[in-house]
Amino acid sequence: MKTINFNKKIYAEKAVRQTIKAFAALANFKISENKKYFAVKISGTDKNDENALAGEFSNFVLSVCE
Amino acid sequence: MAKGDLKFSLKNNGVNFKINVKFYSFESVLNAAHVFIDKFYVFFDGDPKLTVSVFLKPKKETASRKELIKSAGEFSNEILNQELRLRLAKNNKQLREYIVGQALFGASPEQISRKEDAGEKELDKILEKELKALEAEEKKAAKKEKTGKKDPLNILAPWAGKGGKKKK
Question: What is the ipTM, given to two decimal places?
Answer without folding.
Answer: 0.90
